[in-house]
């Protein structure tokens, strides 16, 4: 018995040690980023490196803002990602609901088409999409960044899997009460899927937030740049201002971090709700 | 149903049911046999917006890429349209330059293109280390955070998952500086414990490790959360039963956790493999593909061919081969890892 208790104590110690080590490893780059953002450039590239944050954050930000309108850049990224997430959630949940709860012709082949594109690295549609966009005159517009990715295969796949867990009896009783099919969708199916929708919202937002190659070739006017494109631009210039880049980087984390903190509980419960367990 | 027979009951007294009634019966009959078909129209309504966009921006570009891969792109200049016949489909597509049909030449060229094979090798090398490392750590973390005695779970989970908030180019830049050979934090820490500075970005061996470290850092938390969700779905009774049988921690992990987690693990492995295969921003920012092309990835090479050299036809051929390869690997993973 005592032997067992000692083993348990060792195990607990090792578990905590592992978790804490990983937490430190994960936070070091973020901490260092903040340190770098709050120091003037010349102090930052000293050796040994400074480990305590300085006070130059606002100065660095002002210098950055002078070179490029970074506030607008953040706004562009947030705007694009939010509009994209909302529209794609709607499309994916509508289609996912149909796949989960209705029978219709071509259902099987359509679903296989989705499964096929699920393993397709869709970033590589950049060449044909670039050509299509330049032909229809959409280059350098937000709609060119948003619309082509709305039909997200992971989105419809996740919604279809999770919506199958909605009991048919629930839908049937709503029909008895005279609800139309569309009402059933938005009054019953959507609210029941709240946590899955939250999980998908994070996935979709993150997808759009991370798009780099595509906006890089589509956007031309610096006023339209999204965060990754603007940051890449900052690095391309001849003299590299690391302090400004670190300010830009720190600010770039905030919107996604907020979304993640707000939705992470639902992400955990929603991502696998009723799926993958067939 | 009973209401219907009541209302039609009157007519039965007149003898034969009218043709309209017979039609109605037939319709009810069909409806009773195929209940869900009632929703067919609504189903089309629900799926059509998705599939219109899917067709335009996913299916069509895929076919278009395949088509382009048989052409050579000459001089660039915006202008007219040309059209494409895909059997029954007649589609007008943009023309940026003269297209010349060259058959399989792009594919022949690709077979002998050393840099393409180099980029394939680099990507595979990074993948084979990065995906097992990341999934292993994410799984260990998920199991640790799922242990009943661990407190502050929410805090730990958030801290570990925080890196996914960092924008892809943003975090790559942070790593570029962290691993800087003169003033980077990593070399400073190493110097404190007596290790001489490492050429993280300029030696072939270490540059790949730096990329691996960066990608792993960003995605551990994301995968951990999905695995944690999977762990929480495992029925507690299975563990209790194993405990009664006297199973050790390792045995419980081996015989309960792993088999129960298999579908979730598969999901995570397939997505991570695809994700690492299409690695682009990290090497683009951190190493620029160097030193001497040691970290150039397939997508980065395709980008170079397409948008630096404007060899769109050749880049399309590279894309076709790449997509085929990734799809084949994903399908193989699903075959091997699935419950068949």
From TrEMBL, chain A:
Q: Where in the cell is it found?
A: Cell membrane
Keywords, sorted A to Z: Cell membrane, Membrane, Transmembrane, Transmembrane helix, Transport
Keyword Cell membrane on this protein? yes
UniProt-listed PROSITE patterns: ABC_TM1
One of the Pfam families matching this protein, by short name: BPD_transp_1
Q: Which residues form the ABC transmembrane type-1 domain?
A: 74-263
Q: Does the keyword Ubl conjugation apply?
A: no
Family membership:
Belongs to the binding-protein-dependent transport system permease family.
Q: GO CC annotations?
A: plasma membrane
GO biological process: what's one of them? transmembrane transport
Q: Could you tell me which InterPro entries the record lists for this protein?
A: MetI-like, MetI-like_sf
**What topology does it adopt in the membrane?**
Multi-pass membrane protein
Q: What is this protein called?
A: Carbohydrate ABC transporter permease
Q: Which residues cross the membrane?
A: 12-34, 74-98, 110-130, 142-159, 197-219, 239-263
Automatic annotation (TrEMBL), chain B:
Q: Which GO terms describe its biological process?
A: transmembrane transport
**Where in the cell is the protein located?**
Cell membrane
Instruction: Cite the InterPro entries for this sequence.
Output: ABC_transporter_permease (IPR051393), MetI-like (IPR000515), MetI-like_sf (IPR035906)
Q: Does the keyword Cell membrane apply?
A: yes
Matches recorded under Gene3D superfamilies: MetI-like
* Top-level lineage group: Archaea
> In what residue span(s) does the ABC transmembrane type-1 domain sit?
120-331
PROSITE patterns the record matches: ABC_TM1
- Cell membrane: present as a keyword of the record? yes
Q: Which UniProt keywords apply?
A: Cell membrane, Membrane, Transmembrane, Transmembrane helix, Transport
Give the way it sits in the membrane. Multi-pass membrane protein
Q: Name one Pfam family in it.
A: BPD_transp_1
- Transmembrane regions: 42-67, 125-147, 159-179, 264-281, 312-332
Give GO cellular component annotations, separated by semicolons. Answer: plasma membrane
Q: Which family does it belong to?
A: Belongs to the binding-protein-dependent transport system permease family.
Protein name listed in UniProt? Sugar ABC transporter permease
Instruction: Please report the organism this UniProt entry assigns to the protein.
Output: Natronococcus pandeyae
């Amino acid at each position: 018995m005592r032997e067992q208790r000692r083993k348990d104590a060792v195990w607990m110690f090792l578990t905590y040690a592992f978790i804490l080590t990983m937490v430190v490893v994960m936070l070091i780059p973020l901490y260092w980023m903040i340190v770098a953002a709050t120091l003037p450039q010349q102090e930052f590239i000293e050796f040994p490196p400074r480990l305590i944050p300085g006070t130059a954050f606002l100065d660095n930000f002002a210098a950055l803002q002078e070179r490029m309108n970074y506030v607008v850049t953040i706004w562009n990224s947030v705007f694009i990602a939010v509009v994209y997430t909302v529209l794609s959630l709607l499309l994916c949940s509508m289609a996912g609901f149909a796949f989960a709860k209705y029978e219709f012709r071509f259902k099987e082949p359509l679903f296989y088409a989705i499964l096929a594109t699920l393993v397709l690295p869709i970033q590589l549609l950049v060449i044909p999409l670039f050509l299509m966009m330049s032909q229809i005159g959409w280059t350098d517009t937000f709609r060119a960044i948003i619309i082509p990715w709305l039909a997200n295969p992971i989105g419809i796949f996740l919604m279809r899997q999770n919506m199958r867990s909605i009991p048919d009896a629930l839908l049937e009783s709503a029909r008895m009460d005279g609800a139309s099919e569309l009402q059933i969708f938005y009054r019953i199916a959507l609210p029941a899927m709240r946590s899955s929708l939250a999980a998908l919202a994070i996935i979709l937002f993150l997808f759009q937030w991370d798009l780099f190659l595509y906006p890089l070739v589509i956007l031309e006017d610096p006023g339209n740049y999204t965060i990754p494109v603007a940051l890449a631009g900052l690095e391309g210039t001849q003299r590299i201002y690391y302090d400004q880049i670190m300010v830009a980087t720190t600010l770039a984390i905030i919107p996604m971090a907020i979304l993640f903190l707000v939705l992470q509980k639902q992400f955990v419960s929603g991502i696998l709700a009723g799926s993958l367990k067939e | 149903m009973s209401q219907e027979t009541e209302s039609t009951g009157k007519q039965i007294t007149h003898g034969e049911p009218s043709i309209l009634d017979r039609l109605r019966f037939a319709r009810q009959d069909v409806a009773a046999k195929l209940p869900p078909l009632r929703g067919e129209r609504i189903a089309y309504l629900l799926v059509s917006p998705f599939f219109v966009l899917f067709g335009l921006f996913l299916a069509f570009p895929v076919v278009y890429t395949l088509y382009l891969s048989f052409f050579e792109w000459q001089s660039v200049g915006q202008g007219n349209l040309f059209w494409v016949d895909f059997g029954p489909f007649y589609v007008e597509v943009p023309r940026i330059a003269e297209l010349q049909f060259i058959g399989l030449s792009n594919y022949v060229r690709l077979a002998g293109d050393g840099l393409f094979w180099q980029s394939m090798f680099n990507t595979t090398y990074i993948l084979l280390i990065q995906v097992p490392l990341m999934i292993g750590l994410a799984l260990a973390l998920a199991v640790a955070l799922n242990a009943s005695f661990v407190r502050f779970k929410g805090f730990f989970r958030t801290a570990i998952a925080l890196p996914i908030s960092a924008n892809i180019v943003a975090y790559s830049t942070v790593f570029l500086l962290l691993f800087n050979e003169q003033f980077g934090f990593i070399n400073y820490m190493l110097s404190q414990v007596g290790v001489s500075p490492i050429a993280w970005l300029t030696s072939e061996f270490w540059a790949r490790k730096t990329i691996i470290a960066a990608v792993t850092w960003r995605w551990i938390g994301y995968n951990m959360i999905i695995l944690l969700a999977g762990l929480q779905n495992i029925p507690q009774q299975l563990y209790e039963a194993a405990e009664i049988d006297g199973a050790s921690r390792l045995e419980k992990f081996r015989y309960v956790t792993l088999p129960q987690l298999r579908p979730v693990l598969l999901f995570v492995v397939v997505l991570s493999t695809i994700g690492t295969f299409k690695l682009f921003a990290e090497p683009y920012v951190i190493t620029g593909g160097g030193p001497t092309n040691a970290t150039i990835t397939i997508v980065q090479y395709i980008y170079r061919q397409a948008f630096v050299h404007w060899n769109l036809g050749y880049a399309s051929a590279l894309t076709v081969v790449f997509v085929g390869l990734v799809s084949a690997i994903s399908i193989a993973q699903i075959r091997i890892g699935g419950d068949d």
